[in-house]
Amino acid sequence: MSLDEYKDFIAGLPCVATWLTEGRKVYSCELHHPESVRDDLSKWLIVPLSYDMHRGPNGMHGLHRRGFYNRYKLTDLELLAATSMLAAQSNFR
Length: 93
What we know:
Layout: H1 3-11, H2 16-22, E1 30-32, E2 47-49, H3 51-54, H4 60-72, H5 76-91
């Protein structure tokens, strides 16, 4: 799978933050890179977030990393792990 195909696949998953905090599956996601380090492998570390959870005032970029964690109690690692879980579930359907 190419990186572009992987990005399309992850973007097709529901918003991981909404799923974890509310149990709802919200689609039409943007891709977020949780880690600030950028190298060839970190391009693959992406999570699907709705506009609100990504760039909205209640999202990762609106609240910034610390504010997002304080509000939702979700770390980057938890977002990545839940993304992996959603991806695995979607492959088995």
